[in-house]
Amino acid sequence: MTSSPRAYKRAGRRAQLMAFLSGVTLTMACSWLKVGSAGLNLSWMPLSASPRHQSAAQWLLPPPMPWKPLLKAAQLRRGLSFYGSGERIERVAAKLMAGEPITAVTIGGSVTRGAGARSADTNYPSRFFDFIRTTFPNRRHVLLNKGIGGTTSGIFSVCAEVLVPQETDLVVVEFTFNEEANLPYTSPSRRGFEQLLRKLLRLPNSPAIIMLHHYAWYFSFGDGVDSGLFYRQAEEQLGTMAQYYDMPAPSVRNALYLQMQADEEPYGVTRVHAPGSLNSKDRRIRVAGPRIAHKYFYADTIHPSDTGHQIMAELLAGVVMTAVQTVAQRAAPQAGSGEAASSEAVLNATQLLAAVGSTRLELPPPLVPGNAENPTTLCAMQEDFKGVAYKLNGFSYKAEKPDKVAFVEQKWGYRAEQPGAWMELKVNTEEIPGSQGTATVLLGHLKSYSDMAVAVAECRSGCRCTRSLIDGLWKTKVSLMQMHKLEVTQHARCIIRVTVIERSAAIPGGARPAGAGRKFQLSSLMVAHTPLVLSSYQQQAQDLASSTARGS
Q1: Where are the beta strands (DSSP E) in 342-421?
Q2: Are 510 and 358 in contact (CB under 8 A)?
Q3: What is residue 533's predicted lDDT score, i.e. its pLDDT?
Q4: Of 43, 39, 53, 47, whose CA–CA distance to 18 is shortest?
Q5: With 80 as the cut, is the pLDDT of residue 108 above it?
Q6: Where do transmembrane segments lie in this chain (predicted)?
Q7: Which H, E and C letters describe 486-546, residue by residue?
Q8: Where are the domains of the chain?
Q9: pLDDT, tens only, 121-164
Q10: Which homologous superfamily is 69-328 in?
Q11: Binning pLDDT at 50, 70 and 90, where does residue 475 land?
């Protein structure tokens, strides 16, 4: 929860820090930031105008965050489950300390998009970006939340080049809940996740990746318990990838598990904000009313509340501040020598950046043998998908949820509502002009449990492919964008037609399955020239269904 202005009456002290950092000069007091047996200390010593006054100043500044912190130092230490060499994140820290702008992006599913937060200002990406702006002010920072509710890492793996700017310095990756637990590393899900990481790491600025682990208490069940199982989720396997690729990995579970287990304020789990929520045994979970809502971490059985989102932002801020401290300690000897240099070293931007290097960083071989990332030649989704339509008959461009504020939340796409409607898409499937062989086309379509139709996809002109069925219906009571794969021959002018058809006994599920209807919606198209790893993530759909359908 946000604090009142009265909580920070010493605003002048923070202003000293702000001016200090934005002025491209860092003055190190010997006890400015401390790491020792006690770990990271987010207390700041006052920074006076003259370096000769630094060692004498012993009063503490509040942490450089625009809210009252909810995490204690011990929780920050426990929550940083892996830091690694810090090579990439410390480059970002050096730029921030030198007063330079950065480009930072968050990617993930509904948690990253802000589900559970009361407003766009209180979700974890907004709070984390607020921390960056406040602590390292620069008007040229580019801070982007690219989270898309109802999506998975597979879609980001295909479209990473489109969704994440080439000049990015820092990417937060949050997919731990979305990924199935306990899969072989060679499974499509794990291979696709690794491909996403490798694509991000190869961006021109050699960006830092922070793998943020969310923890869904009520979906961590099994082995005799209905919630709060420590090892239920995919965190262990994704954490192994973070270790292999040297990525910091803050963890909600590791930071708060003992306090959640004890139902301690403000990390409580015995109540949620959403009425009607049920646990894995269909037992109703008590509701946290307005007066006590701030005491509980979860808005529903999956998504964090404002309290939970703030905690996730603080975990990210802790990673950045760990890097800042390390850079400052490493750069201090460059400013001078002797005892005075260790306590009162003045560091300029050149020294800060020199301490971390600037050469492009190379990647190790894939963790999963043979799992190199696959380039894509087209990724048309969200606004870009509208222009892919070639001919329409009974399809129109509509929003699935028009009452939502943000375009991405409205889930726009081409929709038909009658059998016989068809839509043609025109794409270039050539890798290079005149190339032969095949390409993979992925059609993104809405899959839901009510009023959904079935369609066929076929190649009409230029390219060739096998006619295939696309069913928009499934039993799990949740709506997600899913990908339908077509292997097509390469052609500069490939025309693909999607036609809504009547259900019949010959179609899997029969002529009249429960939930069948007349609606069919296409929302994205992707083209790649190497085999793409993609999965429907059925377990995620079941988890989401259990949370949203029962509680509605």
Answers
A1: 345-348, 376-381, 389-393, 395-399, 412-416
A2: no
A3: 58
A4: 47
A5: yes
A6: none
A7: EEEECCCCEEEEEEEECCCCCCCCCCCCCCECCEEEEEEEEEECCCCCCCCCHHHHHHHHH
A8: 69-328, 376-529
A9: 999 999 999 999 999 999 999 999 999 876 778 778 878 888 89
A10: SGNH hydrolase (3.40.50.1110)
A11: confident
Structure tokens at 101: 């702008």
Buried b (16+ CB within 10 A) or exposed e, 349-379: bebbbebbeeeebeeeebbbeebebbebbbb
Name 485's bridge partners. Answer: 442
Query: What's the chain's average pLDDT?
Result: 82
Q: Is the dihedral of CA 518, 524, 525, 531 positive or negative?
A: negative
How large is the average pLDDT for residues 190-217? 95
Q: What's the alpha-carbon Rg for the chain, to the nearest Å?
A: 25
The predicted structure's pLDDT at residue 28: 31
- pTM for the whole structure: 0.75
* Token pair of 136 as six digits: 């390292």
Q: Which of 61-65, 183-187, 269-273, 447-451 has the lowest mean pLDDT?
A: 61-65
Q: Which CATH number fits domain 376-529: 2.60.120.560, 2.60.120.260, 3.40.50.620, 3.30.420.40?
A: 2.60.120.260
